[in-house]
Amino acid sequence: MAGTQNSTGADIHAPPSEYYSGPLALKSAGINRSRSRNYQRFHAPADDSQSTLRRRGSIDDKSHHPRRLLIDIATIERAILEQEDTNGDYQITIEDSGPKVLKVPTASSNGNRTIEVRGTYMLSNLLQEMALAKDCGLRQVVIDEERLSENPVNRLSRMIRTTFWNGLVRCMDEAGIQKICADPKNTKPGAQPIIYVPFGDAPALEYYTGVARDLASLNIRVVRLPRDITPQYVKSINNQFGILTLAADVSYDAGGRLVYKPLPFVVPGGRFNEQYGWDSYFEALGLLADGRVQLAKNMVDNFVYEIKHYGKILNANRSYYLTRSQPPFLTDMALKVYDALSDPLRDEWLRNALSAAITEYHTVWTCAPRLDPVTGLSCYHPTGIGMPPETESTHFDHIVAPYAERLGIDVAEYKRLYAADAIHEPELDAYFVHDRAVRESGHDTTYRLERRCASLATVDLNCLLYRYEVDLASAIDLHFGGSMATDGHVSTSTEWRQRAEARRTAMDRYLWNESKGLYFDYDVELKEQSAYESVTALWALWAGCASQEQAARLVDAACRRFEAAGGLVSGTEESRGRITLLRPNRQWDYPYGWAPHQMLAWCGLYAYGYATVARRLAYRWLYTITRAFVDFNGVVPEKFDVVGMTHRFQVEYGNVGVDFKMVPREGFGWMNASYQVGLTYLTSHMRRALGALTEPEVFFERAGWSTDASASHTPASTPMPVPVFAMADARRLRGVTPLHCALEAALSPTDSPAYFDMPLTATTDDPRTPASPGSDSTADDGNTPSTTKELL
User: Fold this and answer.
1) In angstroms, rounded to a whole number, what is the distance separating the alpha carbons of residues 344 and 349?
2) What DSSP string describes 688-751?
3) Residue 654 has pLDDT above 90, yes or no
4) N or C end of the chain: which has fewer CB within 10 A?
């Protein structure tokens, strides 16, 4: 979408680096300024030879021409903070009690007249824009008033696309290593930065040894890991926190000298300064939606590197995560990147990524200790020993205290002896196995998994592994002719379909609850289903392992249990249980909602024919984000209380992304992604309502929207706009499930090529093209057919 231009021809909504790089245009056409400060001579109309004089006003009236503000940053910043920031947090929010109006000089008057900037949203935008202008080295600047009053949906989407992603990029090169080495979890005074290099990566060892030498003032230590990284070794470096190297482009110049270029990647934000496991999948979806293909590809390459050198996709690339993985999404992540690549070598790149995923599947998720041989299902079960060292020093004191009391010693002494293996306590050992498993699940923490996680065949993990199996089956068929050689073994699509079918049968037997219409985790030790009702049940729709009959019951049950005012809640209040001082709330329980749960649910609901439900849930979630963005100085936090529709709460680990001065520069990784992807689910009517901050219930009532769980379409009548990735998913999974076979048949006219064989990058004239998140327009504009069936 072309940007709006001001009188100088500049794009009003350009990225800060462009908007604040041009000359300051202080002159306004049509005005002859006299030397008097009290009068201003205005040109008369062309047919009147007389010009007129009138008293200069102190405030510019609204005119037909957009107004521009002349800002001396130090002066206006001081004024706005002194007057409006009443709680002293360097943000302008609805919690501040200032008058919410500030007079600011206009550019057209050379600063002699003013206009009033009113309201929390415009004042906070003014504060943000001044901070961004300062970043560009400016002390004075002209800002278009329209930039301050920009539609909040457009502004937030633009900031994510042009500012937040850039703020989250890290690189382990010489320029970026100091920032990455800094670890807020390492609270030891004077801790030396450590870079751990895999045993088999000689170029990395050479490069980082050189970096440590060139940056001698940082006192970096480079450590080569052993060939066999055992749990005992990892425990031995518990007090030596360090960063783990990732992938790089490696070559040699004509003189044989190493040319080593570490790959940039995206981090979650806040205190999380590494590439995380499952965060990266959702961040990649947002990056792809915004056209940042290379960054998403780099993150896949980093995962392939981790599998090769560390044996698994890590929780994150820190030394204390070497024995722990996170929810596996590599196959879908790699395939979505592949779809966006134009590189002629992309088939070989995909083969390499899928080969790594196959290795991970066999050596991490479907072998001891994570595989339960009785059910054939998998559990989160990392191999680390003892107390996780990255936690706060007092985090486990309440757990250890009863054991210390039995021995008549204090907690600190007990922890020292336990860490040194001088004390053996099987109960405590089991507790830490489960605690580490909770962290591997990504859902740290929740009463759903507490003290039992390593014994649970969870719905979420087995849905992900089912998706691995069907992804591999379809990709081997589509791209490698039905068989693919990997490390001396030939994988066939047939064997992966058989694995998928075996897992689906086991999930139906152990995880599906016919009476409740939900999937539940299964305790392999107690041999019974958990009673905890979790929104992860909806992951079965994303994975495609539910039948149409199961899906109908699942959607009905899930909407009644998990749909809250601001989106999907993690679990039910009843499942969470009563909260007391001794039993505090957990961040992955009721009433909190998280971006991964929303995004997977939208995708699955749409694929199974519940587009209305998917759009409704997307609107709720995006409204919650947009409302906070408008009311709280542009904040994009890690999570929300979706029942109270707020990010202001006290819970374990706080809420990352809320602590900034004047302007947010990162947002939060998967929240940014959920916004960009979520916008592609909305119709133009919904997007307009979202920009006007129409509350969900008001919008649904006025628009006559259904708020039940009924199906809105069949595979033969898919409503527009088609969300981002939906076409590619359906094309890739055709033939794998009856659902996608039906989609293929319904969306492909008999006299044309298969619908899902059409290029994914269709022209803008194709009404089936998903709308860009940065665009105001969508396919549903009143003139476009409402279903794909009508198009065909």
Assistant:
1) 10
2) HHHHTT--HHHHHHHHT---S------TTSPBSSPPTTHHHHHHHHTTTSHHHHHHHHHHS-TT
3) no
4) N
128 pLDDT band (50/70/90 cuts)? Answer: very high
Helices 346-360, 459-480: crossing angle, 10 deg rounding: 140
CA distance 14 to 5: 9
pTM for the model: 0.89
What average pLDDT does the chain have?
Answer: 88
Confidence of residue 735 (pLDDT cuts 50, 70, 90): low
Residue 701 is a catalytic residue: no
Q: Is 684 helix (H, G, I), strand (E, B) or coil?
A: helix
Among 595, 647, 636, which residue's Cα sits nearest to residue 617?
Answer: 595
User: How far is 122 from 148, CA to CA, in rounded Å?
Assistant: 5
CA distance readout (Å), 448 to 250, 380, 392, 677: 45, 13, 22, 28
How are beta strands 265-266 and 456-457 bridged, if at all? unpaired
CB 482 within 8 A of CB 491: no
Whole-number Å distance between alpha carbons of 428 and 414: 12
Tell whether the model's pLDDT for residue 772 goes beyond 50: no
Please give the Cα distance from 96 to 476 (Å, whole number).
58
Q: Is residue 576's pLDDT more than 70?
A: yes
Question: What tokens were used for 633?
Answer: 């100085």
As given in the structure block, the two tokens for residue 373 are 């041989």
Question: What is the SS3 assignment for 379?
Answer: coil
Q: Which residue is catalytic, options 150, 201, 306, 444? A: 444
Of 34-48, 374-388, 675-689, where does mean pLDDT reach its minimum?
Answer: 34-48
Q: Which helix (H) or strand (E) holds 554?
A: helix 548-562
Distance between first and last Cα of the chain: 27
Active-site residue, selected from the candidate residues 301, 638, 729, 744: 638
Of all residues in the chain, the percent with pLDDT exceeding 70 is: 85
Question: Tokens 């949203």 sit at which residue?
Answer: 121
The single-letter DSSP state of residue 314 is -
Structural contact between residues 456 and 521, judged by C-beta atoms closer than 8 angstroms = yes
Q: What is the pLDDT of residue 512?
A: 98
Q: Using alpha carbons only, what angle is made at residue 276 by residues 732 and 470, rounded to the nearest 5 degrees?
A: 20
Look at residue 68 and give its three-state secondary structure: strand
Sign of the torsion formed by the C-alpha atoms of 202, 204, 209 and 213? positive
Helices (H), 15-135: 16-19, 73-84, 119-135
- 59, pLDDT greater than 70: no
- Compute the distance between CA of residue 743 and CA of residue 734 in angstroms, rounded to an integer: 8
Angstrom CA distances, 788 to 344, 616, 721, 769, stand at 32, 20, 9, 11
At 295-319, the pLDDT tens digits run 999 999 999 999 999 999 999 999 9
Q: Rg (Cα) of the chain, in Å, rounded?
A: 28
What is 481-522 written as a DSSP string? TTEEEETTEEEEHHHHHHHHHHHHHHHHHHTEETTTTEE--E
State the alpha helices, DSSP H only, in 104-229: 119-135, 145-148, 152-159, 165-167, 177-181, 202-214
Mean pLDDT check: name the lowest of 10-24, 332-346, 531-545, 581-595: 10-24
Name the strand (E) or helix (H) holding 400: helix 397-407
pLDDT of residue 712: 72
Annotated active-site residue 501? The verdict is no
Selection from 567, 493, 572 nearest residue 537 by Cα: 572
State the pLDDT confidence band at 730, using cuts at 50, 70 and 90. confident
Residues 6+ apart with CB under 8 A from 788: 717, 718, 719, 720, 722, 746, 747, 768
pLDDT tens-place string over residues 109-126 = 999 999 999 999 999 999
- In this prediction, residue 439 carries a pLDDT of 97
Q: How many whole angstroms separate alpha carbon 706 and alpha carbon 585?
A: 33
**Structural contact between residues 89 and 98, judged by C-beta atoms closer than 8 angstroms:** no
